[in-house]
Each structure stands twice: as C-alpha cells, then as structure tokens.
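Example noted here:
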Amino acid sequence: MAMKRSGEGPKVTRQAAKFLGVSVLSGVVLAGLALPGIGAFGLVAKGSVEGFDEIPANLKTPPLSQRTTILDSEGGEIAKVYSRDRTVVPLNEISPYLRTAIVDIEDSRFYEHGAIDLKGVLRAVNKNAQSGGVSEGASTLTQQYVKNVFVEEAGDDPDKVAVATQQTIGRKVKELKYAIQVEKELGKERILNNYLNITFFGQQAYGVEAASQRYFSKRAKDLTLGESALMAGLVQSPSRYDPVNAPKEATKRRNTVLQRMAELKHITPAQAAAEQAKPLKLNVSRPKSGCITAVNGAGFFCDYVRETFLNDPVFGKTKEARAKRWNEGGMTIRTTLDPQTQKSVQKSITDHVYQDDKVATAISIVQPGSGKVLGMGQSRPYGFGQYQTQINLSADKNMGGSNYGFQVGSTFKPIVAAAALEQGVSPYKSYSSPYRMPYPEEVETCGKPWKNSVGNTVQNENRSEVGPYGMREATAKSVNTYFVQLVEDIGLCPVVKMAEKMGLDPASGGKLKQLPALTLGGSDGMSPLTMAAAYATFANKGTYCTPVIVESAVGPNGEKLRVPKSKCSRAMSEQTADTVNALLQGVVEDGTGKEAGLSGRDSAGKTGTTDERRAAWFVGYTPNLAGAVWVGGPGDKVEMENITIGGVYHDKVYGADTPGPIWRDAMSGALEGRDAPTFGGSPIVDADKGSGNKGDKPRGPRKPGTNKPGNTKPGNTKPKPKPNDAKPDPVVPGGIIPPGFIGGAEGAPTEDEQ
C-alpha cells in the first residue's frame, strides 16, 4: 500500500473534493449570490482571483487573427500571410453535420443548460472519483469558448498563454463569470459560431474553415458526416488525434464521435456503422503562408509590406499597436508591385547571377513622380536554406535590410554635380583633373572643416585620364580628381544637404558623415531602393518622392484602412535636373555605362565600383522608371577579381560589365510595350577634352533612342573586350586615400550581420 502523509486523504477523495468545490461554487454563482471572497473556500492561491465581484463585468473579445492576402497592382495574389491561419465564416456556411458533431461530443446538453452544466459537473465528479484521475471534464462549450478567448488574446506570448491556460481555481472562477455574461449577451447560436471559428484544430489551422481546407481541401460547408466527426474529435487533443501524423488514433476518435451521435439519435446506428467502416480519405493541403510562398521572386517585396505595417505610424501610434494590427490580419492589401516589372526583374537576375554564386545582386525599380515601388528582387531568395536569406538586400536596416547597406562608389557623383549646379557652378566648369593630385588641405563642411593633416593623395583609375575636363566628360569618364576639385570649391555642406533632400540616408540610420569619402561614394552604405528613389528625382524634374509600396488596404469587415502616401518635395531646380539628365545620358551613350544603354528610348545613369571591388553598381532611369542594381558579396567581404558570376568569368568586376547589363535587361522588359517619352530640356555643350583637346563643340539636341545596348549575354565564359571609349568607372585604390576618406569603415559586418 502506498505511503501517504498525515492528514492527506486518498487521491480519489482529493479529486472528488476538488470537483465538488467547483460544483458548489457553480451553484452559488447560478443562485446569483455574490461571494465576499473565495478565500472562504480555501481557494486563494497564486494565479487565482481574490473575489468574484472584483472580476470585470465585460469580457473583451479580441478580433480573431486571420489570413491577410497581399495583391499586386493588378489584383493578382502575391502571397497569403498570417499569424494564425483562420478564415471566419458564418454558421450557415458550416456543415450541419459538423455543428451537430461538435455539440454531441463536447457538450451534448449545450441547448438545455446555462453557462454552467451542473449535471455535467456532478457526472464528472462521480466519474473521476471512480477512475482515480481526470477522465472527464465539466466545461461547457461556452466555458471552452471563453478559455479560447483568453488564449487568443495572449497571442504568441508564451508567458501570457501559460497564464491563460493555467490549471488554477482562480482562472476557473474567472471563466465561469464570463461564461454567464456571454450566455446572456450572445445566445447559443452565436456562441457556437464563435467557438467554431476560434478553436484550434491542429496543423496550424484555427477555426473550421481553415481546418477543413487543411485536411480535406474543401469548404467547411461541404464536409460529409465522417469528415465532420473527424474534425469534431480533434478539439479535445489536436496533436494526439492528428489525422496526418496519427491516423489510427484519429480513426478511433472519429468513430467515438459517430457512436456518440448515434446514442443521441442525431444519426442512425446504420449511418454510424457505415461511416466507421470507411478509411479517413484525407486530401491534405499543406500550409502555404508567408512571404516564402510569394510568386515571381517577390518574397522580399512581400516582406517589405510587412515591415511597412510594423514601422509606419499610419497603421498605429505605437510599435505594439502596429504589431497587433498586423497579427490580427484578415486584410486584403493591394500593393504597387507591377507584374510585368517584377517578372522582368526576376528574369534578369536569374540570367546574370546564380543563386550559389559567391556574390549576390539586388534590384529595386520605382516610378518617378509617384514613389511607387514597381519591382524588387535579389539573387538569394527569401528562405532559410543554403544560399537563401531573410535579409532584404534592397532595403534599409529598419525595413529588414542589411545592417550597413553598401558603399555606392561613383554613383554618388551625380549628387555632387547637382549640388554644385545648385550653387551656381557652370556645367562647363573645367578643372585640371590630373591623373594624381594631393588631396586639398582643407574642405569646408556644415561645421568644423575637414583637414588633410597627413598629405594624402587621390588618383584616377587610368593613367590616360588627364584633364582638363569639363563636367560632362568628367561625369561620363567618372574622373575622381575632377570631383575632388569640385568639392574643394563648393565644400561638403551643399552635397550633404542635396543628398538629404534626395532621401539619401544611410542604410544603418542616422545622418551622412561629412567626410571627403562622400564625394566618391566611399562613406556611408546605402540600399538599392534608396538609390533608385534618389535617381528618380532627376527623372522627375528635380522633385523627390518617398518610396511607397501599399496602394490600398481593406480590413476584415470590408472597411478601408488608411495607408502611407508618398511625400514629394523639390530637391533641385528643373534646370539642374535637366542638366544632370544630359550629363548622365552621356554616361550611357559613350561613357562608362555604355553597356547599360537602352535601345529605342532615352535613358541615363551612372556606374559605380567601390574600393577593392567589394561592390559594383549601376543606377539609372528613363523618364518613366528608375532602377538601382547592386552586386557584391555577403558582408561586403568578397573582392570581385578573378571571379565567375552567372557563368561569366571576370578578371575585375566593374559597374559597367555586371550591374549595367542586369539593369539594362530588367528595365527593357519592364518598359516593353510602354510609352517612350524623352527627357527634353536644353542640351549642354561638350566641356574641354582631356589630354590637351581644348575644343568646345555644341552637341545639339539628341534623338530619342540613340543609346545602344552592350553585347554582353548571359552564359558567356569569357568577358567581352571593353570599347576604347567605354572605360571602367574609377576605383579609388586602397592605400592612397587615408582611413576616414574611403568609407570611414567602422568594421565590416560579418555575413550574419549583413
């Protein structure tokens, strides 16, 4: 015989006493008597309430978490996302078999008793006393519904879930009081409907509609008798009776439900026997949720939608409020994603860069004038496996991107040019632009001047690049010494202010560092989306528009939700924008970006390659689209020399030979069949030619479509020879520029930190 402590009765007696206490308490509650304190019953314990009257009178029912559907601009589905897979349906869209089966197996006297079933309590006391354990509970459907409300409100917080499900008398008392209220306010039919929509049925499915789709790939209204019995049996223990992983246990439980339905004469014994003899016949639909399921490589676009909801105050004043709104779901979100553009982006990526290459690429395309993000993709897809990532290489850190972004190299020079033009510098301004020169002794900033205290120098990429040069040729050839001399004249402050007006904030957050490295794009890291939106300013006649990704959103009840709007502001004069357009047209016509030029329409852009070739860029635009392409290694650690990318060998990677063709192909497909407007504006004349050529010659207006695409094609194993007039964009050689000039590197991020 087992030993027991003094004063401790047998286990059976203790269990009976516990249930008897609940039954007595239930009787008092039903009699409408106020309890001065449940401590009188010896029930005060950690986790219990102290008095029945102190429980709030109203049960706050949280909105049920449902699936959210994300659509492209044409209404096509990108992905379904959810915190909990649930689709709320009315009672008349649930099979009568299922409604009956749930009541019969969980609470057969549901329509006869109130919030608490005293007969059920006493039956449970007797049965559990006989078994010496807890073989039968006494909770009504109403009480179960209240408990599920507590669990739903707890969300995914494990501590809150533990409190909502803890086995204490205090929680039970709270559950009883709310059950009484719910019975009075809702009535039986609404309680049953709410219960069927809130309950967990296993396999990530909440509510009968999602569960019906999961196990049988059909609507809940179409469930047969046997299918309904299986579903009803899951409620007691979704894991134990899981028909996918435990079919034998699930079959036994289904047959128990059928037997109970026959005992209550809701089906005939013959019907029960016929269904019990059948196999389960599942038709399982696996959960398909989240941005990992997005079509056309739009996983990171999808993730950017989520980040927008979590970060933009228009969706809630606090971080917690926005997260709650997103997790509740049930929304239909129409985005700015253009299917044609996205397909072209994805095709260009897969044509030029392989998923398992040492380096990756990322592309963002926006619409000038509206800020709409029309396409976003990268070569390493959204996922958790090898050569996959959850880091959005197109976005800033606070929107799911890399910690530091990527240095942009010479693609920053047009911002320097725009700042100079706004300061009154002529586009014909000529500088000596030698191959190598001492860096200026002092450069003005918005505060304390920067001083070159150790006599450092700067040089161009090629020894043949010797001035004098004017702004157009210096931009086309991306001459470092020209732009350093230009910044010496105007200072860094106008450049920083221009960058801020164009939305060029560091990907890591904060403000741009006022270092000379900024002149050549070697300071703070940027994201492709930031660069695309900035260059769209030139295409939009000098007006910058913040990127937006959500067109509209509708809530679970069909209500229209407020969404973020693009904010547009003038960053420069139209004349400055027109001049920059002319400068950057020269880059793709006969400069470093010749391989990126588009056929049959005006285009402009700039190449960029960073120190040690850790990143290469092409950022360009037409009057109706702007896009940025970055190519580089994880953590910005791969030096792109003697490397194969997308099956093409490169002795050295430049912005022209890899990002340029990616941009060209992505933009060509995005623009196919669409209008081909021209930039317009006044042409500028050639500046002085380098190497002693002083001739100034008017160019005259350009004809649309004079840009010619390069001849690089995916799949080649040898690099194409570069034309003599399409020199690579300059790379500032390591060791010539001092620390703090190139990059102000605070330590390169690791691959995990990227």
The CA atoms of residues 83 and 743 lie 41 Å apart. Residues 1-54, 687-754 have pLDDT under 50 and may be disordered. The longest helix spans residues 11-30. The two ends are 65 Å apart (CA to CA).
